[in-house]
Amino acid sequence: MTASVIEADQSLPAEWRDFLALTKPRVMSLVVFTGLCGLLVAPAPIHPIIGFTAILCIALGAGAAAALNMWYEADLDALMKRTASRPLPAGRMDRQSALHFGVGLSFFSVILMGFATNWLAATVLAVSILFYVLVYTVWLKRRTPQNIVIGGAAGAFPPVIGWAAVTGDITLLPILLFTLIFLWTPPHFWALSLFVRSDYAAAGVPMLPVVSGPTVTRQQIALYTIPMAAAAIAPWPLGLAGAIYGIAASLLSAAFFLLSLQVLFNRATEPAGMKPEKRLFAYSVLYLFAVFGALVLDRWILA
After folding, report:
1. With bands split at pLDDT 50, 70 and 90, how would you rate the model's confidence at 161?
2. Which of 106, 157, 206, 207 has the most CB atoms around its CB within 10 Å?
3. Mean pLDDT for the chain overall
């Protein structure tokens, strides 16, 4: 254990801002949005208060998983520049507080979801938390460069949870939305990991750019973009969404693919020369917001 993490165990009581930071609020915003979209496109009405409660539970569950991730990875965070200022490695919070916060929030979010909506939605929420913490964080993160490929499933559950909270079932459309996020995660995260590769190398995390180098990573980004685009467009030809969504998803995916080609043909090895990677990473966030937003717009216009 590093000195900074040891100091964190001797820190003063944390402020509310530190507990909020544990939930990774910027990451949570995308999780909440995709969960909301899954709820809004479901083919059944839901009372606004119950719908709000369902989205709150998704947010709390995502925050709980993030807190447990930070608790377990405090030693890694202390070794990386972009994470060294987080509450635990910075010494603003002790690890036990983070653990209790994450576990308590996990149970509360799942139980509230079950009583407010249905136990299928609660079960999927519980699976998503456990998958992120046990499969991705504990098992995969430090062992294999495929960590983000398999672990990406954890972030793909929210639209399924939102849909299940309304309908009590899981059909083809939420499965396609899950698949879209699952296939989107590797190119999104690998674009980031290319220009923070030195951080992962210093911490000994076997991310793909560290293990296989930038060239292989760029090839994988381009390759994953193709099935990702197919999953994004699929609801249109399958009759699950209309032309508004289909055209928007096609154009947005084409732009993603063009950016991935710029990344593929970039030969820079230092962050200063990785502007295509930074553009793709920024666009990938916008892409997911826009595709899911287009689905909701399409459903509301055609309703």
Report:
1. very high
2. 157
3. 91
Do the beta carbons of residue 98 and residue 22 sit within 8 Å?
Answer: yes
Instruction: Output the CA–CA distances (angstroms, integers) from residue 60 to 49, 104, 207, in the order listed.
Output: 16, 10, 28
Structure tokens at 275: 């502007």
d(CA 163, CA 110): 16
The per-residue pLDDT for range 267-281, each reduced to its tens digit, is: 888 887 889 999 999
The DSSP letter of residue 134 is I
- If one counts the domains in the chain, the total is 2
CATH code (residue 81): 1.10.357.140
Give the C-alpha separation, 181 to 52, whole Å. Answer: 23
* 260 CB-near residues (< 8 Å, 6+ apart): 187, 221, 222, 225, 280
- DSSP H or E segment with residue 245: helix 243-264
- How far, rounded to the nearest angstrom, does the alpha carbon of residue 154 sit from its chain's CA centroid? 7
Q: For residue 2, what pLDDT is reported?
A: 46
Q: Which domain holds residue 177?
A: 171-303
Of 29, 96, 79, residue with least CA distance to 204: 79
Question: Exposure of 243 by Cβ count < 10 A (0-12 exposed, 13-18 middle, 19+ buried)?
Answer: exposed
Provide the sign of the torsion angle of the four alpha carbons 119, 120, 121, 125, taken in this order. positive
Structure tokens at 221: 């980004």
